[in-house]
Amino acid sequence: MALKLPPFKVPALSSLFSSSRMALGSRCVFSAAQCSSSSSSTALREGERPVPAGLSLGHLTRPDFPILYQEVNGSKLVYLDSAATSQKPTAVLKTMQDYYEGYNSNVHRSIHYLSTKATYEYELARKKVSDFINASDPSEIVFTRNATEAINLVACTWGLTNLKPGDEIVTTVAEHHSAIVPWQIVAQKTGAVLKFVGLDHDELVDLAQLRQMLSKNTKLVVVHHVSNVLGSILPIEDIAIWAHEVGAKVLVDACQSVPHMVVDVQALDADFLVASSHKMVGPTGIGFLYGKIELLSEMPPFLGGGEMISDVFLDHSTYAEPPLRFEAGTPAIAEAIGLGAAVDYLSGIRMEKIHEYEVEIANYLYGQLQSVPNIHIYGPKPSENITHLALCSFNVEKIHPTDIATILDQQHGVAIRSGHHCAQPLHRYLGISASARASLYFYSTREDVDNFIEALKDTITFFNSFK
Ligand SMILES: Cc1ncc(COP(=O)(O)O)c(C=O)c1O
Description:
There is one protein chain. The longest helix has 20 residues, at 113-132. By secondary structure, the protein is of the alpha/beta class. It is built from 15 helices and 17 strands. Strands 4-10-9-8-7-5-6 form a seven-stranded mixed beta sheet, sandwiched between helices.
């Protein structure tokens, strides 16, 4: 049966691109009862979800993720692979279903009701993402397939246009492959040189070395905000100041920060920043590139086709302004709208609260893992000055991480990741070929950690019994 939609008044789409912040009002995705049953002492922002006393954020939000309530291989599922992809709350799934059942239509084309509604929701999602990371205008947000495509977009447009032989791209050994390989390709084509910063004694990116490496030859600095292996955070504000001092631009891989903490692109002064929806409770198939509008405006198109043009003649074409210049063809409409719902969901909890809870549960995970015999945990040890975010990569002496992951899954229903986590250079730098990784999110609980640790100890005993 077709979904009944409320009457829809056609908005002025141009207003969605205006630099003045449109008061669209972020929808509260939680029920009114939930929103008003607060026993929290701190004042709540409009639409914010309260955490009743005595209940952790993990316990409160879990019911929104029905996938977590299942048995895997005869055990209760313990999902500790959220850094690979997060689970999706019902609100996001419902929003996407509403689109398909109620107003499925192409965007930016037809003038009929369904298309106008779809276009409005698609552009509203852009506005939500823009507000979420505090961009100065929604036109600074380009929807891409994922973060990888967003980096490739910058590499193929800004990179190929601006880099020449002898120019330097400074990056780190701890980057995800998606932030290394596109620049290797661009360096081969342009004659630019890639330079890699190593780690210091705490297994943190060596900031002194990074600073020293910057020179007037540096044209771009490519850095992660949070490492998907080390769990460490980089001071992007400082890196941006140092890079800008030598006239370089900064591209921030924020895949592991945007889902877990407040990210403010203006405060960071990032020139480009990328993230993927599927790691922030949104659907797969969509991510975004943030770019300062003056940079996006000067960049040539990435792909050619419909949507990205202004005028097409037989011998040449002119192009649309950003962001549409970079969104050739029919976009991932349901996914963009789903990402908008994910942003609503996260904002309803509040990113500060998510971060605070995750730091607490990350410390718990780190502490519990340390109690496991013959374990080596990678990345900085959490302390007063050093935050280790809610993921831990580790190895247990003489047991392959994939063997550990296999037994955890098959005998205990615990889902972790093993392998190089798309960071082979980092693993080589650490002198290993693979590691195991347990990663949490705000819907994870201390019981998840306890179950994992118990299962890990059992698994180690199991393997040691063969020795
Ligand atoms: C730090 C980091 N960068 C980039 C990526 C690539 O994200 P995607 O595969 O969604 O493009 C990931 C995904 O694991 C990541 O963790």
